[in-house]
Specification:
The chain is an alpha+beta fold and 83 residues long. The protein has helices at residues 3-7, 10-26, 31-58, 77-80; strands at residues 60-65, 68-73. The protein is elongated, with a radius of gyration of 19 Å. One of its GO terms (molecular function) is exodeoxyribonuclease VII activity.
Length: 83
């Protein structure tokens, strides 16, 4: 991931991805432009995935225990249930 891509916020990447998808769905772009848009869209998708992964690693859930609150690292619901 380049430094420029790291500076893009998750929201900006999602917005750009939505624009790209819209342009590709319209089907009125030349083939070369469509390929460039597709490649950029894949980068934005990977960027969003990486940013979500970073956030998941930072999320902690407070669980009330007998002696107060303890911190537990976030685990997605399907992993938490062993699925």
């Amino acid at each position: 991931m380049s430094k420029k891509e790291q500076e893009i916020t998750f929201e900006e990447a999602i917005e750009r991805l939505e624009v790209i998808v819209s342009q590709l769905e319209n089907g009125d772009v030349p083939l070369e432009k469509a390929i460039d848009l597709f490649q950029e869209g894949m980068k934005m998708s990977q960027l969003c995935g990486a940013k979500l992964e970073q956030v998941e690693k930072k999320i902690e859930v407070l669980i009330e225990s007998e002696s107060g609150f303890i911190k537990k690292t976030f685990a997605p619901a399907n992993e938490d249930r062993g699925e």
